[in-house]
Amino acid sequence: MSAAEVSAFYDELVAELDRRRAALDDEGATFFNRPLSDRELIEWLSFQAYYEKRAAEFIGRWLADTPEPDAFVLLAQQVEDEAMHYEYCMRALARRGVTSLDGWVPEPEWVEWIDVWYPSGADTIERVAAHNLAGELGACQAFLEIKPRLPEDVQKTFDRIIPDEQFHMRLGRQVIERYATTDDQQARVRERVLHTFDLEQAGRVAYNRRMVRLGLGEPGDAVPPLP
Ligand SMILES: [Fe+2]
Ligand SMILES: [Fe+2]
Known about the structure:
Layout: H1 3-26, H2 38-62, H3 69-94, H4 108-117, H5 124-146, H6 152-179, H7 183-213
The structure holds fe (ii) ion (FE2) (2 copies).
């Protein structure tokens, strides 16, 4: 398969995610442009901190099983980035009096998505397809949606994080374009990407359910919960 064909495969996957996301928005997700309350902000930041820490952990576990030399170096860099993102989120929480995630329990959908699915890729292309392609793309788009609702200090935190996440997306593209070159490999990449999208949507629904349960949201709110 030519380099141009592999590149077109990647672009088509991203376009398909965009179409699926647009279709969801058309189905009437209501987005209230009110600022997050302090309590909801703490919930949102706790989710981000949890996700960033888990990302550092599961990418770190992959390193011993990453035979591609360029992917090894890039993923090692990513481990450090995700650990720093965790630290930045914890600092934003500390400014609000929260110093630990002890006692903070993730929703079952988040466990399935972040603790089970992302770590489960069988090889580098499956892992990077799910997390770097689908996951980080969704995260960056979600952040841009929620940014106007965040206080200035948290906007600055995410202004530091987002360029790293964009680097992780480029890293994912490089790895997929280099190593997902057969029909079988591309079929596996596609399956990982589309299932990640479904889990991300379930994660959003779970976030809204949690906010309603905590008395922080209305049924039907569309709150992007992603780092
Ligand atoms: Fe991150
Ligand atoms: Fe990342």
